[in-house]
Structures are given as C-alpha cells and as structure tokens.
Design goal:
Layout lengths: L2 E5 L3 H12 L3 E5 L3 H10 L16 E3 L2 H5 L4 E4 L6 H8 L8 E4 L12 H8 L4 E6 L4 H5 L4 E7 L2 H11 L4 E6 L2 H24 L3 H21 L4 H4 L2 H12 L4 H10 L4 H8 L4 H16 L4 H12 L3 H9 L16
Parallel strand pairs: 1-2, 1-4, 2-3, 4-5, 5-6, 7-8
Antiparallel strand pairs: 6-7
The protein binds NADPH dihydro-nicotinamide-adenine-dinucleotide phosphate and 1,3-dihydroxyacetonephosphate.
Family: Belongs to the NAD-dependent glycerol-3-phosphate dehydrogenase family.
GO molecular function: glycerol-3-phosphate dehydrogenase [NAD(P)+] activity
Function: Catalyzes the reduction of the glycolytic intermediate dihydroxyacetone phosphate (DHAP) to sn-glycerol 3-phosphate (G3P), the key precursor for phospholipid synthesis.
C-alpha cells in the first residue's frame, strides 16, 4: 500500500483514483477547480465527467497542491496536456528529490514540440518521471471493464513499482523502458482519431477506417522511430492498441470532434460541442513541426492540419490522400533482382 495523489480530477484522474483506491492505496485527488472538489467530496461521483462511477469515502479531495504533493510515494499527473507545464511549475516547490511523477496525459507541447515527461522534467528537475498509457477510456475503467495499459520508466524497478500499485483483475499493467515510444504513440494517435472521425462524419465505411488506422500507425511509427522510439512499442498497447480504441470507440472525444467536422462543423464549433479537451487539435500542429524537424513524411496528419487550420474541405483532403504519388506499401522491403 502506498500514499498516492492524482493531480487533475477530470474523467481520467477520477477513474485512476478509483482503481488506486480499490487496490488499497491511500488516495488524494487534487483539482484546481473548487466547485469540482466540492462536488466530488459531497457526491462521491464526478457527475459531469464520469457519471455512474461511485468513489470511496476514503478518497480525499483537495484544491491544496502542497498537501497533495508533499510526502506522496507516487504522483499521477492527469491534467490535460495544455496544462502540464503550468501544473508542473506550481507543483515544483513541493516535490522532493527523486519523487515519482507518472504522466498519464496525452499530447505534445505546441510551441516547444516537447513530449510531456520532458516538460515535467524541465519544470521539476528533481522529479523521477514515468508514464502510463494504453487503450483505456475512463468510462470503461471506471466500471471495471478489463483494460490493459503499459507503464514506462527509465528503470525496471520504477516501472514495476507503478505496475504493482495499479494492477488488479480488471486493470492489467505491462512494463516497458521505452518512454518516448509510449508518449509519442499516445499523443499522435489523437490526430489520426480526428481523421477517423472525419471519415465517419462523411459517412465513409469500415474500409476507410481500417486504412486510416493501418496507414496512421505507419506514419506515427516513422516519426517516433526517428525520435528514438522502438518499433515494438508502436505495435503494442500504447501504439496500435490505443489507435484502434480511439478510432473506433464511442467514448473517444477526438473521434467525435472529427466526426462533427466531417458533418460540416468548424474546428471551434466541434471543440465546443465535445466540451472536453480535444488534444489532437494541439498535437496536430506539433506533429507537423516534428515531421519537418525529423524529415519524415506524415501525409494523413498533414491533411488533418489543412482541415483544422486552413478550412480545407474534408472531402478534398481525402481525395488528396487517395491520389498521392504511387507508392510501395513498405518502403524498406526488397524486390527480387531482375
Ligand atoms: N478520458 C480518458 O479516457 C483518458 C484520458 N487520458 C488523458 O488524460 C488527460 C486528462 O483527460 P481527462 O481527464 O479525460 O480530461 P477532462 O476533460 O475530463 O478533465 C480535465 C480536467 O482538467 C481541469 N482543468 C481545467 N483547467 C485546468 C488548469 N488550468 N489546470 C489544471 N486542470 C485544469 C478540468 O476542469 P473543467 O472541467 O472545469 O474544464 C477538468 O477537471 C488528457 O491528457 C487525456 O488525453 C488518457 C487516457 C484515458
Ligand atoms: O486517450 C484517450 C483514451 O485512451 C482519450 O482520448 P480520446 O477520448 O479521443 O480517445
């Protein structure tokens, strides 16, 4: 049993707090929003973001960051990616040397193109950072449906520690040393999910969805491997696994936002309608920046950017993808010599 805090009380923070508490840990949950803490403390349920998931009386909810951070064995950072830097900055004075911070948010910082654990490390140099990611919608984790994720850390014993705190019969945790691969798979799949949603919004079918998932993981892998990720990670839970769930699930906010755009909504109108954070919109621009920096081709993500930021018609973006230069499926495969 450990003392853990979840920093961020949205749907994912709330679901993970429930898992950690069920496993016998002492759990505190911090939110910047006073009304959210009051609701969670009195109703023991996040009525807006995770209705139907009852939370134990033992979980402590607070807006006091100092008490949420000091003396905890593990901090789970679950605020949306655009708030990772500001939240880390605020946490820094209370974080002790080597204190463990597990990032569970998914994104890349738009201005700096930095993955989230790098931002945490920059703002809190004394912290030990790790990640937890995979195909895991809060709505299903909250009601105990079988789910698998992967914990990534620099050292095996740290990943195994995270595994031991989170794992139970409905939440299976694997370990991995490939933090950058896990992070990039998580952030970039949101952009492909927007594309999958757009295809749904246009009324396209299963063939199109399968094409986006398969070619999507190809371009995610191209960039991630250029940045130091291992190919196996992209074909694992935090790569293809998360891409499948987000492109297919009714719970996916990125897919839903894309679907609205496919039906004619503007990006801003779609984001307002979805209400929760649509991180693919932020990661789309960052992904293009990284593609340029590392000299890799990301055609689907390029077309998503055109739709999002240049008001390019979704249907035309699909035609652009279909009529790109003729290619071989796997660039590195060798042909029989003539
Ligand atoms: N939901 C899921 O199934 C999963 C989510 N994730 C990732 O977890 C992260 C959090 O997502 P999720 O919980 O779903 O998001 P939600 O939209 O459900 O909640 C986000 C929370 O952050 C709060 N918030 C608003 N402003 C700030 C701020 N300035 N600083 C800190 N917090 C703020 C929000 O408050 P308010 O309600 O007032 O806006 C809300 O409580 C994301 O990166 C997401 O990709 C990962 C796996 C699964
Ligand atoms: O990453 C997530 C679930 O794994 C949340 O993003 P989506 O809601 O778009 O799928």
């Amino acid at each position: 049993m450990a003392k853990v805090s979840v920093i961020g009380a949205g749907s994912w923070g709330t679901a993970l707090a429930a898992v950690l508490q069920k496993n016998g840990n002492d759990v505190t949950v911090w939110s910047i929003i006073k009304e959210e803490v009051e609701m969670l403390s009195s109703k023991r349920e996040h009525l807006d973001k995770l209705p139907g998931v009852k939370l134990s009386e033992k979980i402590v909810f607070t807006t006091d960051l100092e008490s949420a951070v000091k003396g905890m064995d593990m901090l789970v950072l679950a605020v949306p990616s655009p708030f990772i830097r500001s939240t880390s900055k605020n946490m820094c004075p209370f974080v002790s040397e080597g204190q463990l911070i597990v990032n569970v948010a998914k994104g890349i910082e738009e201005d700096t193109l930095m993955p989230l654990p790098d931002i945490i490390k920059q703002e809190i140099p004394q912290a030990e950072t790790a990640v937890l990611s995979g195909p895991s919608h809060a709505e299903e984790v909250g009601i105990g449906l079988p789910t698998t994720v992967v914990a990534g850390a620099r050292k095996k014993e740290i990943a195994e520690y995270i595994q031991s705190l989170f794992m139970n019969q409905s939440f299976r945790v694997y370990t991995s040393p490939d933090m950058i691969g896990i992070e990039l798979g998580a952030a970039l799949k949101n952009v492909i999910a927007l594309a999958a949603g757009m295809a749904d919004g246009l009324g396209y079918g299963d063939n199109t969805k399968a094409a986006l998932i398969t070619r999507g993981i190809k371009e995610i892998s191209r960039l991630a491997i250029a940045m130091g990720a291992k190919a196996e990670t992209l074909s694992g839970l935090s790569g293809i696994g998360d891409l499948i769930v987000t492109c297919a699930s009714k719970h996916s906010r990125n897919r839903r936002a894309g679907m609205l755009m496919g039906q004619g909504y503007s990006m801003d109108a779609a984001m307002k309608e979805v209400k929760m954070v649509v991180e693919g919109v932020y990661s789309a621009k960052a992904a293009m920046g990284l593609a340029k920096k590392y000299g890799v081709s990301m055609p689907i993500i390029e077309q998503v950017n055109a739709v999002l930021f240049e008001d390019y018609p979704v249907k035309d973006a699909v035609v652009n993808l279909m009529l790109r230069d003729k290619k071989t499926e796997h660039e590195d495969m060798l042909w029989e010599q003539e």
